[in-house]
Amino acid sequence: MPTKVSKKVAGMIIRSRKTILKDGVMTTSGIGEPSVYHALVVIFLEFFAWGLLTMPVISVLKETFPEHTFLMNGLIMGIKGILSFLSAPLIGALSDVWGRKFFLLVTVFFTCVPIPLMSINHWWFFAMISISGVFAVTFSVVFAYVADVTEENERSLAYGLVSATFAASLVISPALGAYMMNAYGENLVVAVATAIALLDVFIILVAVPESLPEKVRPSSWGAPISWEQADPFAALRKVGKDHTILMLCTTVFLSYLPEAGQYSCIFVYLKLVMDFNEVMVAVFIATIGLLSVGAQMILGVLMKQLGSKHTIMVGLLFEMLQLMWFGFGSQMWMMWAAGVLASVSSITYPAISAFVSMHSDADNQGLVQGMVTGMRGLCNGLGPAMFGVIFYLFHVDLNDDGKHRDESRTTHILDNATAGHADNFPQLIPGPPFVFGALLVICALLVAAFIPESGSVANNFRSGSRRQSGLSMEVHYEVERSKRHNGLSPLSPLVDNSALHCAL
To answer: Domain Major facilitator superfamily (MFS) profile, which positions (predicted)?
Structure first.
């Protein structure tokens, strides 16, 4: 068991952080000391660039794959999600050795590489989007960066700022991209998005300092990266060892699978099936984004009044309702109503994370959060592919002419009814994947109802974290060094498996 460190010593080390940085403990080539705000700028610019392309991508997708638009969209985003799930642990482990700045640069650069290809070759554009999934883990590296520069009692607020910044980047950018495309053409939107992506890369190179101190990297002691650290299924294999964790992860899988699929295609669906124009889709995104921010603000109140378990169930209930509305709705006002419900349902995953945090032992936080995050990452690959295949199987009509589509749908239903065919079912349901997703969420609700309201989560897991709760990396290093000098224990790497999973 590690010895306790007096608060006086810890306070002295924290206050001497600036001195330690100046003495060369941390390798930095940026502006100022590493902070959360550096990470916020990186996230905002990357997703603002992609947000500009929301409307152009929908048009190019329909133009490139006119017969199988939703199927190809699902496969493209599904491959990207699966590759991200497989590569995230390895990139996280490597960032623990080589530092965060390098991998911020790599992930942002390769994630944005497909953008200029949109004006060159559409096939290469979509192929590169799929392949870029290997590096589409900027969030993982950003969360690790934030963990490096904050104390544990500040971390939830910092993570909230990162999520809010992501939402803010998508409030304005789709509308701006739609306006530029209508006024000046698609090529200008691509050029502006490319310029913003390059600006993001430049800022990382010049302004973002390294957050990981040189002396706390495992390579300082010659520690190799183990397969367990890089194995994306390592955390998932431990799910069944604890009953509560098993139910939580099952709830996440059943609820986030349709959510991931919905996110991958909803804007395409609104434009090509529900006859939303570019401006309406952009306004829809902005409105739902703002409402989601509001829902997050009342999350704390809900958890105090209802408890974490019942808050999760409220979020799942709204998710089920919005999926039903998207699936059965055939009018524009129904889509807006579904969107409002979707903004409220955004509290589900934060409520699950809070439940895990409050009911887990301090030395199990990273391990348990890693399991939940790993399940979510798996859904990011499977969800879009599932939605694409279901759209394909149910022959959803993508004719942009709404009147022609309604007439052809009515004729098709009458013909099938006359012939006694049963395949008129998909024509009666505009969005079959959403209805199937609602059924999965109902199952998630049933599982969540049996989650214990109290008790320690993951009692069977002991990660043996060496890092003291509430201490920064520099403090923990000094603690380990003092123990080494006192002959109590050798200096050892600070980033163990639990910390790695927490970052991912």
So the answer is: 35-455
